[in-house]
Amino acid sequence: MHQQGLKAIEALVTRPREPYGSIEVRPLTPIIGAEIEGIDLSGELSNQQFSEVHRAFLEHQILVFRDQQLSAEDHKRFGRRFGKLHVHPLQAMREGDNERLEVRASKNSKFVAGEDWHTDVTCDEEPPLGSMLYITETPQIGSGGDTLFANMYLAYDMLSDAMKAFLEGLTAVHDGAVPWVGAYGYKPDQPFAKTEHPVVIRHPETGRKVLFVNRGFTSHIVQLSRPESAAVLEMLYRVIETNPLITCRVRWTPNTLVFWDNRCTQHHALWDYYPLARSGHRVSIIGERPSA
Ligand code: SIN
């Protein structure tokens, strides 16, 4: 690993941590993810609770809330504290509540949502700032169906200065057809969204740089030839896939809600429980257009 990456990790691990007053925050790993205790998401959050959940979200990127009894309205109310709810293009094609995406896998599934490393819906001009997945049913035998998350600030920090300089100013196309037509086989009436974003963005709230390409949606880097683009993207994806140090793993129990910062993380849902079932719903919050 590049020396600078190690320095960035050390700085993160040894940073001063301000205490929380209204919630308990238990880190999952020293650098990504936290379990949040002492809060019931089915009611209105006080201003202090909201601001501390928001601070924990920026500090840890992935928040895990266990044993929550949430109606669809509770789930959406919590989402709306952070902004306007997003309508997922696949949910828009189905009947019913289109602000909650159904996430379900069973014996009959041909694929499961989010089976490879990705950031949600980066084909949109304004991709979600975050998603809240509420899982109510987990595989009934043993464990399985965990979700892996990666810290994309650190994925950027781990690159050499030469690679960072090379990526500066490059843009990439993010195309909804890559996962939903290419991988899942949907045949939409209208083409899915397709947008160009900088390869390296700045997180709009923390100001930190983030590596912003993902296997799920990125089709190519605009300024490179196709073979060059494929090779560079593959190398960048390998930064996550070969560095467990910058990842954490969430083991779901029924009625767990996980809220991830979609601007600075990627995730990968593990489908290791076929033919058993796992299900829940996801609410996402619209973010702003990513910029360098
Ligand atoms: C997703 O990509 O939103 C699905 C994640 C999961 O099911 O764990």
Radius of gyration: 18 Å
Largest sheet: 7 strands, mixed
Percent helix among the residues?
25-40%
Q: Counting H and I runs of at least 4 residues, what is the number of helices? A: 8
List ligands, each type once: succinic acid
- State the name of the first-level CATH class: Alpha Beta
Principal-axis shape: globular
Span from first to last CA? Answer: 25 Å
| CATH superfamily placement | Clavaminate synthase-like
Low-confidence stretches: none
Order of helices and strands: HEEHEHHEEEHHEHEEEEHEEEE
- What is the number of independent domains? 1
CATH architectural designation: 4-Layer Sandwich
Strand order of the largest sheet: 1-2-3-13-5-15-4
Number of strands: 15
Structural class of the secondary structure composition? alpha+beta
* Mean pLDDT level: 94
SS strand fraction: 25-35%
Could you name the CATH topology?
Double-stranded beta-helix
Describe the overall structure.
The model has no long low-confidence stretch (mean pLDDT 94). It is built from eight helices and 15 strands. The protein has a single domain (3-286), classed as Clavaminate synthase-like (Double-stranded beta-helix). The protein has a seven-stranded mixed beta sheet. α2 (47-60) links the parallel β2 (34-37) and β3 (62-65). By secondary structure, it is α+β, with helices and mostly antiparallel strands. Helices cover 25% and strands 26% of the residues. Bound molecules: succinic acid. Residues 103, 113-114, 131, 133, 147, 267, 269, 282 line the site of succinic acid.
